[in-house]
Sequence to fold (118 residues):
Amino acid sequence: QVQLVESGGGLVQAGGSLRLSCAASGTIFSINSMGWYRQAPGKQRELVAVIASGGRTNYVDSVKGRFTISRDNAKNTVTLQMNSLKPEDTAVYYCNAQGALPYAWVSWGQGTQVTVSS
Fold:
């Protein structure tokens, strides 16, 4: 079982920056993808950014050019650098990891609040 622990959320003014980090622990054979999702009040959870083990990334259109996802495969960590934050980025951000060994698995972090004030 893989556990994910997030850190780095908080309150920031519009235009500011925050850095989210997530560390995976437990019995880990390999992690195929790591990513960040977010859920704002009254809205569905959406994918923000994802990074594959080989480094390929994908972002939701609304954060392209502002957010950067990176990972350290040796440390099983993933980071989301968020710049030029907007009030509409306010949400609970969840770390996600997926693997295929020894069987297909998906793990979620507990979530961290990001609040951007106008």
Remarks:
- The two ends are 40 Å apart (CA to CA).
- The CA atoms of residues 10 and 114 lie 5 Å apart.
- The chain has a mean pLDDT of 96.
- The first strand starts at residue 2 and ends at 7.
